[in-house]
Structure prediction request, 148 residues.
Amino acid sequence: MISQKAKYALKALIVLAKSEPDSVQMISEIAEVQRIPKKFLEQILLDLKHQGIVISRRGKAGGYLLLKKPEQITFGEILRIIDGPVAPLPCLSRIAYRRCVDCVSEEGCEVRRVFAKVAEATRDILDRTTLADCLDATVEKMVSSITA
Prediction:
């Protein structure tokens, strides 16, 4: 399950992706449209700014805009920035691997084998789904083609 913070980050980024290129969006407008607490959104956008996803502009006409094109920003990238590794078990994480303390053998672990398939399918979808995909509703098509 993704965190509320990650969900808010994705919702805010979708708002920015829907706006005209080089169009600045005020935090208060994003917060209102997506029903995100403004202070929480400020923290989220600051994290995304530090990771090179968004840029901010100061002043009366200030706000945020995407630093990358929507087709260059994947859901997987955002989830990793906000929530950390995308893995159901620590022994399946690519960036924060940790051996399970209760596991005698990873190769023989039936639970790990099942969740390895889940993790791979999940990563595949998240790493291929971009903000641009959300804008033209191809996510459903992509998911159905993977699961078919």
User: Anything to note?
Assistant: The chain has seven helices and two strands. The chain has two domains: 4-66, 73-147. Strands lie at 54-57, 63-66.
